[in-house]
UniProtKB/TrEMBL annotation, chain A:
Pfam (any one): GATase_3
Ranges for domain CobB/CobQ-like glutamine amidotransferase: 6-200
Keywords: Cell shape, Cell wall biogenesis/degradation, Glutamine amidotransferase, Hydrolase, Ligase, Peptidoglycan synthesis
Catalytic activity, reaction form: beta-D-GlcNAc-(1->4)-Mur2Ac(oyl-L-Ala-gamma-D-Glu-L-Lys-D-Ala-D-Ala)-di-trans,octa-cis-undecaprenyl diphosphate + L-glutamine + ATP + H2O = beta-D-GlcNAc-(1->4)-Mur2Ac(oyl-L-Ala-D-isoglutaminyl-L-Lys-D-Ala-D-Ala)-di-trans,octa-cis-undecaprenyl diphosphate + L-glutamate + ADP + phosphate + H(+); L-glutamine + H2O = L-glutamate + NH4(+)
GO molecular function: carbon-nitrogen ligase activity on lipid II; glutaminase activity
InterPro entries in alphabetical order: Class_I_gatase-like (IPR029062), CobQ_GATase1 (IPR033949), GATase_3 (IPR011698), Lipid_II_synth_GatD (IPR043702)
Gene: cobQ
Subunit annotation: Forms a heterodimer with MurT.
Residues engaged in binding substrate: 130
Protein name: Lipid II isoglutaminyl synthase (glutamine-hydrolyzing) subunit GatD
Family indicated by similarity: Belongs to the CobB/CobQ family. GatD subfamily.
Domain of life of the source: Bacteria
UniProtKB/TrEMBL annotation, chain B:
Annotated Lipid II isoglutaminyl synthase (glutamine-hydrolyzing) subunit MurT C-terminal domain residues: 321-431
HAMAP family the record matches: Lipid_II_synth_MurT (MF_02214)
This protein's UniProt keywords: ATP-binding, Cell shape, Cell wall biogenesis/degradation, Ligase, Metal-binding, Nucleotide-binding, Peptidoglycan synthesis, Zinc
Source lineage: Bacteria, Bacillati, Bacillota, Bacilli, Lactobacillales
Subunit structure: Forms a heterodimer with GatD.
Family matches, as InterPro entries: Lipid_II_synth_MurT, Mur-like_cat_sf, Mur_ligase_cen, MurT_C
Function comment: The lipid II isoglutaminyl synthase complex catalyzes the formation of alpha-D-isoglutamine in the cell wall lipid II stem peptide. The MurT subunit catalyzes the ATP-dependent amidation of D-glutamate residue of lipid II, converting it to an isoglutamine residue.
Domain Mur ligase central per the UniProt entry, residue ranges: 54-201
Gene that encodes it: murE_2
Gene Ontology terms describing biological process: cell wall organization; peptidoglycan biosynthetic process; regulation of cell shape
Active site: 357
Protein name from the UniProt record: Lipid II isoglutaminyl synthase (glutamine-hydrolyzing) subunit MurT
Pathway this chain belongs to: Cell wall biogenesis; peptidoglycan biosynthesis
Amino acid sequence: MANLIKIAYLYEDLMNTYGDSGDVKILSFLLKEQGYDTQVDNISLDMKFNAFDYDFLFFGGGQDFEQSVVATDIQRHRQTIKDYIEADKPMLCICGGYQFLGKYYETSGGQTIQCLDILPLHTIFKADSRMIGDTEYKTEWGTVKAFENHSGRTYFDDKNMLKPFGQMIEGYGNNPDDKQEGMRYKNVIGSYSHGPILKNENVARAIADKIIASHKERLASAAG
Amino acid sequence: MTFKSEIATLTGKTSYFILNKFFNGGSSYPGKIAYKIDPDILKSLGKDYDLIVVTGTNGKTLTTSLINKMLVQKYNDVLTNPTGSNMIQGIVTSFVTHHKTSKKPLAVLEVDEANVPIICKYITPKYFVLTNIFRDQMDRYGEIYTTYQKILDGIKMAPDATIIANGDAAIFSSKELPNKVIYYGFSDKGHENEDFKAPTNTDGVLCPKCNHIMHYHMISYANLGSYFCPNCGFKRNDLKYQVTNISTLLPNKTEFEIDGNKFQMNIGGKYNIYNALAAYAIASEMGITTEQMQKAFAYDEKVFGRQETINVDGKDVNIILVKNPVGLNQVIETVLSDKKPYSLAFLLNANYADGIDTSWIWDANFEDFDYDKLPLVITGGKRVKDVTYRFKIAGLDMNKNIETSEIENFVKEIPNIPTDRIYVLATYTAMLGLRKALSDKGYIK
């Protein structure tokens, strides 16, 4: 079907507790306005997954316990997600989903959990100083207002390769030190913004455009 | 009682008397003062009581109220905290102002999850009634396992207490406890061969023993039901008390059977049948008869803000408190069972008591409303833009929406609604604001 956009919602049944499902709902709504239906597939434990079957990958935030279980399972998909990202395909990762793109995260108990090691970043959890509250920051697409609720502090290991998604006006963002929110690499956005972030239609429309382009490209290569 | 405790008690009593007499209020302030003077006050105040602690995310207030209505029919000296003041100060107030008439009174207390270990430090409960644990105001409470751990920290101080827990919630079977545990739940008779997973937006579906995704023979709502793990064999415990049949499920009437006994309540919602079941379970343990329970269920007083109908110039205004996605989904299901035409309102605030994070509305099933049939949706509260946008994305035609910024403006719209009834879903402080506005105008006596 020419007008069916396929979205992979990574671990939707486990990483689903911070309202980020709203991002996918908003995208489906905006894509519908432009004449596209969407199919959202939950990619969960033990399931097969080829990222190139999809026009967009979404990865939301979850609870610590669920996140630790996902950390083990997701290693099976490292290569396909890495290839997908390197092929300039669009992906949005929020909170836990964002942390997973990096090398590792260190829990408050001092345990190191291996992540996908696709992008040069890492996260340190500090349970006793959670960053909770409204955020506001400037991005390429204008101002964004959101909500953050995380104990993980994310740091870039290669500041040439990764660019921040926004410059803080209010709130913490990645960590208490850098005054920056989120990360951009090719067509991937990582962010700590709940709310959900895409209630900011400026960002939502920009991502919807990327998804449509990605969809057209997938169809062209399939026909190819 | 120590001298310090006596002073604290006296101050608490006096301030309650003054507040109650002259200011028509004061549910937690006297306790706050007394607790400040003597933090150990609860120890001396509560030492003669047999304590029942009711806790969990949803259903605390109604369950406590039902238990109280059952117990007062057999026991003549029962203390409770009926106004939902479920933290330490509010609870101290309840004790300070209770006039004891016996040597061994009962106390039935709704206790905020995080306050369970604080209360247990001073009074050792005889029973814990556990309703459920769902994600709830994550900016305040944190994640479900953290919440359960807080309850467990309290239970650990009372190894002789009996735990009466919702057996349909896997989390209550995730840890081994030295206590006697009794489970209640919904019967899965006739569904034993079914095998399915919860919908993808359900939280808490990982097997606590082996971390695989659990399956179900039957789900009552959210992650509650007859769960089992196909990987390791972990499954629901045997239930001592069971809902065996539900024959009527309307917004203002439910008829159901527990262990074959027929009951009726004048409130709606499957979640309230769980509350009734929890009350049934503890009451059965304490020797309350079926007739006494039936009487308690039939009692027609609406619990403060939990499902109140107020008449405003001929319109039935049905106020329902909402605070988290699972509770809201249950409310949506209940509202949808109304066959008569109705309008809808949603008042969303983001004060501390509401939860300062409003993103939870996106995890609730707004898509389930029948937007073709709904003639009007009024949105309001401090986060009116957020809730309006949620309705828009869910499919509401914006021509059917009225946005009101102030509660007073919302009240002015009520006489103009095109239906006889309006369901008003409101977060905690929005609900308080609405009640006050209706009270100021004389609609609530």
